[in-house]
Amino acid sequence: MKIFKSPFILLTAFTVLMVSCLDETPSVTINRYEIRVEMPDGFKPDIAYANKTIILKSNRFSFTGQTNEEGVAVFTNIVPDIYSISTSWEIEGEDYIEMADTVVESRDVVLSGSIAAENIFAEGTKTLSLSKSVRQSLIVSKVYASGTKDNNNRNYVSDQYIEFFNNSDEVVIIDSTYYFGLVEAESVIAYPASKNPGFVYARQIFRFFDNATQFVVQPGGTVLVVNSAVDHLEFAPLSVNLRTADFEAKSPTFSNNSAVRELKLIFSAFPSLIYMNLVRGGENGIFLFKTEENVKQFPIFYIPGRETGNRYMQIPANLIFDGVEILRNKVNVGPDVTTKRLQSFIDAGFMNINALSGYTNESVERRVDKAKTNGTRYYLIDTNNSTNDMRTVTDPTPGKYDKALLN
User: CA-to-CA distance for 340 and 350, rounded, in angstroms?
Assistant: First the structure.
């Protein structure tokens, strides 16, 4: 007898099978895994990392735990995988004075720690060492590198920009001692943070001023640096108007605005690129530093093992006071946390856009600190961990912080 099989029945059976596979819970889990958090030097012996959040995150799973009075977080029934481990603690200046084991200034500090890739496939214990950094006034608040599509649906990247934000209650005066840089971004990582604890290797370094000129940033104010300070909405419907930029990297590659200050290029690994070399999908590690040293005299190196090709400037990590790392989102696997170039005391986490190669008008932007923000101004979250502090949005508008994903 010939049996007729309805296409609907076959489709239904296939759908049920797929749902069953997707909902399947891994049969093997790890009963217990401990993270022991080690405080940095400079704190009294009785100060422990108690009642703080520890995050385990892989490309598939995420687990959150709390430390006990001894600074130990116990995770139970977690799925075996390769996890990044991260945590941070903001300490106000007055509390820091009481916790320190010596006389210190009343400065807000952030304790943070991270491990890029930890193999967790059996019960065990891992020690997470914390680093301390002083809370800074000027921070990286927006990085728009992905680009978009123009009026003819062609790729458009002229509208890339970086925005910095004064997160303090004091005026910040930017002068010739302020710089920012972009990290090395070789397809095969040349200078991983794990092997270079004391330095960051830059593909480009920019200086705001070359002389005694100053730029005043009010509390809650911003500094917008761009490649092309024009109204890009004329050419791309989902782009942005950058005519009010504060600094422009003057380059014949893009349209320039004579009314906007010139951003000074100090070093570029690629002599032909005199504009900000922001990579559409990442790697984009942006860092701020301040020094009175002659940065043009900092050492420059080829990729280890080579004597030709691109060269990178060596920046002492202790000069860097803020940074944000944006990794590339790779097909099927997501960001590779082992490719971090910024040390954990600069950025204990990382961010990425959702697209693999850009042109999706995605911007990485810092979240609003709702506890401190008031009717007068915004404050932004700064825990030295971009995974916690930032979000990926599709409204790359400078100076705009009243977005749903940022609040």
Answer: 8
Are 379 and 372 spatial neighbours (Cβ–Cβ below 8 Å)? yes
Q: How many CB atoms lie within 10 A of CB 255?
A: 14
Cβ pair 367, 349 in contact under 8 A: no
What phi-psi label fits residue 404: left (phi over 0), alpha (psi between -120 and 50 degrees) or beta?
A: alpha
Burial of 234 (0-12, 13-18, 19+ CB in 10 A): exposed
Tell me which residue of 318, 288, 289, 321 sits closest to 108, measured CA to CA: 321
Range(s) for CATH 2.60.40.10 in the chain?
Answer: 33-134
Confidence band, pLDDT 50/70/90 cuts, at residue 131: confident
> What's the 3-state SS for 105-135?
CCCCEEEEEEEEEEEECCCEEEEEECEEEEC
* Cα 82 off chain centre by: 21
User: Residue 345: how many CB atoms within 10 A of its CB?
Assistant: 23
In degrees, rounded to 5, the angle at the alpha carbon of residue 32 between the alpha carbons of residues 28 and 35 is 130
What pLDDT score does 26 carry? 60
Asked if 344 contacts 131 with a C-beta cutoff of 8 angstroms, the reply is yes
Longest dimension (CA), the chain: 94
> Of the CATH numbers 3.30.559.10, 2.40.40.20, 2.60.40.10, 3.40.50.1100, which one belongs to the domain with range 33-134?
2.60.40.10
Percent of the chain at pLDDT > 70 equals: 93
Residues with Cβ within 8 Å of residue 407, at least 6 apart in sequence: 367, 368, 370
Write out pLDDT tens, residues 10-19: 333 333 333 3
Task: Evaluate if residue 5 carries a pLDDT over 50.
Answer: no
User: How distant is the alpha carbon of residue 73 from its chain centre?
Assistant: 25
In one-letter notation, the amino acid at residue 350 is F
In angstroms, rounded to a whole number, what is the distance separating the alpha carbons of residues 133 and 385?
12
What is the phi/psi pair of residue 79, to 5°?
-80, 130
Under the banding of pLDDT at 50, 70 and 90, the label for residue 104 is confident
3-state secondary structure of 101: coil
Strand runs labelled E in 273-350: 284-290, 300-302, 311-316, 320-326
